[in-house]
Structures are given as structure tokens and as C-alpha cells.
């Protein structure tokens, strides 16, 4: 999740655990602890692909944060003793640190909760920025600064409301997953890998991607749709034209669980993570090879390509699609023909 959300969650969790000892300083400390795991973005691993796959690594691991929280709380209590005592202080520090990666695990990016074990968790039920999760935390924190005698109670209220919304995101994900599973049953795509993720800033409109070998099927579905069938569009995944598979390519493929697209743009070979983004706005696109004058491919150091600016026409279209207007699906996607069309039928 974004830094504002993580800071708000850390502050609210700190206030909730501090109880009668809650104060503006405690909230500030909680906000700092809540954003601490994301300081790994300051670490450079030497190239953009490594930076991508190693983010949310050791600094988000429960196996690292638990002992670190005890060390940090012991130093805190030794240097500047608090009225809470070491056990409650440790609980506060640990909760602020650990709720950060736990919340990140609900997004589609993936979080290495058990680093160094290679077991990333990506539930993908909430977008990385969702005001409906963050605003209750911010409102309750602001209110707690106004009514300081109710600080801890208001922090509990904020965490409770946001947690209920997070639970709702799981329910919404389950509803969409069941909808897609039902539609794909008894079709050639029934056993294909499926990726489902919410579109930006909401949990009503969802993006569905079905991996189909040389092609992938993409569609949007809203919980407000009257017709629950997803209008899938087939798109070409391309292929890797070089016999040698670079380490960078393998890293991207592992990180994305195979949901990648290979594309030649002029004399550049681009690999895109299909899970993250929407429409043509894919943030993780990397140039991995160049053609020479003889049109031979040469592997190059990875370069992350910029995401194109959002087209103004897409914003109202996405809003209408969220509200259940299924007539605009074709306008939101670039249609490409598929040589083996599939008929989707609900049971």
C-alpha cells in the first residue's frame, strides 16, 4: 500500500495498543514505524529488474521484523523508559511493523512474508491505493487529536472500519473469482491460470487475465453488472525470440508467475508484467534486448520503460464501467484477433 496508508495504519495501531498512554507522540512514533519497512526502496540492487523483485523482501519478512521489534523496543525502553513497560511497548512496536507487510500481502505486487524462503504472498484483493481503506483511518486520527481523552478509542474505531473494508475486499474477490470460474467451466480455458485484481481505487470493478499460452484473455467485470459474464478479449502474448534466456527474463517470469507479454518495439525487445496495471498503463515494462544492424538480437542490461500518461477519455469510461455499463468494454481495450476463439458459457 502507499506510504500515507501505511503511516495512518501504524499511527492508529500504536494509539490502539497504547490505550491510556496514547498521545500525539505515540501516534507519530506509530506512523514512523508503519512506514519503516518501505525504506528498502532506498536500496539499489544494481538494475531495475532486481529492484522490482527484491522490493518487499527482507524488510517485510515476519522472520526479520519480529526479532527486530524486540531489539528496537528493548533499546527504546532502555534509553527512554515509557510508562507502558517493555511487554506492551514490544507489542506496540511489533504490531506497527508487522501490520505493514500483512496489509501489503493483500495487494497484487506480492510480499515476501517469510523471507528468505521464496514464498511470496499476493492475495490481490485491494489496490495499492484505496481511499475507502485509508480515509477512515485518517478521519479517526484527526478526531483523536481533537478529543484527546478518546484517542485510543478513536484509533480502535478507525482500525475496525478499515479492517471491515479489507474483509469486504476478500468477499468481493471471492464473488468475482466464482463468477469467472463458472464462466470458464467447460471451455478450453477451464484449467488455465487466472489472475484477478481490483482496478484503481475501488473494489467494485475488477480486471481478469487468463493465461492461454501464446495468448492471454483480458476482461473487466463489475459487481454492479447485470450480466455477470465477462466480455473477454484475446491478446497476443508474443514470444521470446532469442535462444538464450537472460537471468533478468527469468526473474521477471518468476516474479509475475508467468503472466508476462513479449513485444518487439522497433528494434527493442520489451517484457511486460501483465499483473500490475490496467489497459495500456503497465508500470513494469523492461527493455531486455536490442537488434543490431544485421537484425540479430543482443541481450542488454534492463531498462525500465516509462508508463504512458493516462488518456483523459479513459477516466470517465472506467467510472461508467464501474457502475455496470458493459457497452464500453471494447472502447477500454485494444482488440486483437485470436485464431482460436472461445465461446464462454455459464453453467
Furnish the topology, listing elements before pairings.
Blueprint: H1 3-18, H2 24-35, H3 48-54, H4 62-79, H5 86-104, H6 131-146, H7 151-184, E1 194-198, E2 205-212, E3 215-222, E4 233-236, H8 247-255, E5 260-265, E6 268-273, E7 285-291, E8 297-304, H9 314-322, H10 329-332
Helix pairs in contact: 1-2, 1-5, 1-6, 1-7, 2-5, 4-5, 6-7
Key structural traits:
single chain, about 350 residues, alpha+beta, four-stranded antiparallel β-sheet, 2 domains, YdjM-like, 10 helices, Hydrolase, hydrolase activity, disordered C terminus
Short description:
With 347 residues, the chain is an alpha+beta fold. 41% of the residues lie in helices and 15% in strands. Helix 1 crosses helix 6 (131-146), helix 4 (62-79) packs antiparallel against helix 5 (86-104) and helix 6 (131-146) runs antiparallel to helix 7.
**Quick one: biggest sheet?**
4 strands, antiparallel
Tally of separate domains: 2
Q: Unreliable runs, pLDDT <50, ≥5 residues?
A: 334-347
Helix content: 40-55%
Number of helices: 10
Strand content: 5-15%
Overall strand count:
8
State the end-to-end CA separation. Answer: 37 Å
Give me the Rg, rounded: 23 Å
Write down the overall geometry. globular
Question: Can you walk me through this structure?
Answer:
- A hairpin with a 6-residue loop joins β1 and β2.
- The protein starts with a helix and ends in a 15-residue tail after the last helix.
- The protein folds into 2 domains: 168 residues, no CATH class; 148 residues, no CATH class.
- Helix content is 41%, strand content 15%.
- The protein is globular.
- With 347 residues, it is α+β, with helices and mostly antiparallel strands.
- The C terminus is likely disordered.
Amino acid at each position: 500500500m502507499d506510504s500515507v496508508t501505511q503511516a495512518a495504519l501504524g499511527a492508529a495501531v500504536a494509539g490502539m495498543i497504547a490505550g491510556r498512554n496514547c498521545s500525539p507522540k505515540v501516534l507519530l512514533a506509530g506512523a514512523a514505524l508503519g512506514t519503516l519497512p518501505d525504506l528498502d526502496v532506498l536500496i539499489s540492487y544494481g538494475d531495475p529488474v532486481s529492484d522490482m523483485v527484491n522490493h518487499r523482501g527482507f524488510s517485510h519478512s515476519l522472520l526479520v521484523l519480529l526479532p527486530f521489534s524486540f531489539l528496537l523496543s528493548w533499546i527504546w525502553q532502555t534509553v527512554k523508559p515509557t510508562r507502558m513497560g517493555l511487554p506492551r511497548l514490544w507489542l506496540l512496536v511489533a504490531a506497527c511493523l508487522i501490520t505493514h507487510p500483512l496489509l501489503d500481502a493483500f495487494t497484487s505486487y506480492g510480499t515476501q512474508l517469510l523471507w528468505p524462503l521464496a514464498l511470496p504472498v499476493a492475495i490481490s484483493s485491494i489496490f495499492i491505493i484505496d481511499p475507502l481503506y485509508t480515509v477512515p483511518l485518517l478521519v479517526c486520527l484527526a478526531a483523536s487529536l481533537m478529543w484527546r481523552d478518546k484517542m485510543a478509542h478513536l484509533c480502535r474505531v478507525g482500525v475496525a472500519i478499515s479492517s471491515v473494508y479489507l474483509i469486504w475486499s476478500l468477499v468481493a474477490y471471492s464473488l468475482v473469482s466464482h463468477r469467472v470460474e463458472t464462466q470458464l467451466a467447460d471451455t478450453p480455458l477451464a484449467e488455465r491460470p487466472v489472475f484477478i485484481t481490483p482496478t484503481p481505487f475501488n473494489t467494485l470493478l475488477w480486471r481478469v487475465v487468463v493465461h492461454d499460452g501464446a495468448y492471454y484473455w483480458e476482461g473487466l467485470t463489475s459487481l454492479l453488472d447485470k450480466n455477470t459474464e465477462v466480455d473477454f478479449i484475446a491478446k497476443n502474448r508474443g514470444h521470446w525470440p532469442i535462444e538464450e534466456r537472460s537471468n533478468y527474463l527469468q526473474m521477471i517470469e518468476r516474479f509475475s508467475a508467468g503472466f508476462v507479454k513479449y513485444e518487439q518495439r522497433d528494434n527493442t525487445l520489451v517484457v511486460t508484467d501483465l499483473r500490475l496495471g490496467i489497459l495500456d498503463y503497465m508500470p513494469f515494462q523492461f527493455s531486455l534486448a536490442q537488434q543490431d544492424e544485421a537484425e540479430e538480437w543482443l541481450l542488454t542490461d534492463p531498462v525500465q520503460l516509462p508508463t504512458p500518461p493516462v488518456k483523459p477519455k479513459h477516466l470517465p469510461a472506467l467510472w461508467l464501467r464501474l457502475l455496470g455499463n458493459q457497452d464500453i468494454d471494447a472502447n477500454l481495450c485494444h482488440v486483437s484477433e485470436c485464431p482460436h476463439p472461445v465461446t464462454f458459457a455459464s453453467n
